Amino acid sequence: MMVLMSVDATQQQIDDVIQLIKQHNLKPLHLPGDEHVAIGIASAIPPELREPLTLALQALPGVDHVVQISRPYKLASREFWRTDTVVQIGEVKIGGNAPCVIMAGPCSVESREQIFTTAQAVKAAGAKILRGGAYKPRTSPYSFQGLGLEGLKLLKEVSDQLGILTVSEVMSPEDVEKVAEHVDILQIGARNMQNYALLVAVGRSGRPTLLKRGIAATIDEFLLAAEYLLHHGTKDVILCERGIHPLDRTYTRYTLDLNAVPVIKHLSHLPVIVDPSHGTGAARYVPAMARAAIAAGADGLLIEVHPDPKAALSDGAQSLTPEQFSALMKELERVAMAVGRCL
Ligand code: PEP
Ligand code: MN
Description:
alpha/beta; 8-stranded parallel beta barrel; 4-stranded antiparallel beta sheet; 14 strands; 37% helix; binds phosphoenolpyruvate
């Protein structure tokens, strides 16, 4: 439920609404907007309370109207917040009418040389955000697990030197602070989308967060995971479609669910980006799905780029070379223009 105050509502009238919500042991959320103040109720309202509470709120002076939210997620819902959320980090904006933002870089940070070479190349091609995993969720404990803190330090160094924003995955609640000290955006990986302890810890950090869709997650489960982040204190949530469990693994690693882009745009105000690298698992198919994602309305892309994909310690098969990435960026610019966006 959300209470929209009239344009000329006084502070006292706003306080009275908050007080009434609190009296029912519910959590009010004060949401100052450009014109109206809105007050959301972020807790579940018992069914028997719904009607009397709506009537009581509507009767209070200064209340314009009360909106019911039918979705299981509230803060993430477009019913709750009609205008697109635009996540702004430094000069870069993601969502709304902002240019599509390209995040690119290696799956894993492997060495100083590797991350610097890649960062320079993707930045020159127009990427605004450098990606690179320092903590890697690997299927086998014998696979490369990431450089950990050393990888984070390299990301910080490259970010400071080249003036490029960074995103990197955090896998456990204990690491949230450490990762947040070194990068601009915290990534929650597909395997951890329903790791509630991690969602709470990342939410509490209040830091911009890139939340990847779980491999077998429905769109409602995805938005409920985003709800955890919003509920615990992060306003800046970027959703990332990265492919779901496939029917056919012969040619692609996952099935990139591009339906999710318009569906989530309809259901939620949060920005949505697409990861065609994990979505296909094959460099050969990344450009086509990257173009399709922009055409479908994605607010950005996450693309894996490695200076020598054959030698990559993780996800080499889906990584583009810097040359392929740069050629793709030129195509994406044209696709974006064709659908009324830009890069
Ligand atoms: C990644 O971004 O490298 C990654 C591990 O992604 P996902 O969680 O989508 O598999
Ligand atoms: Mn990867």
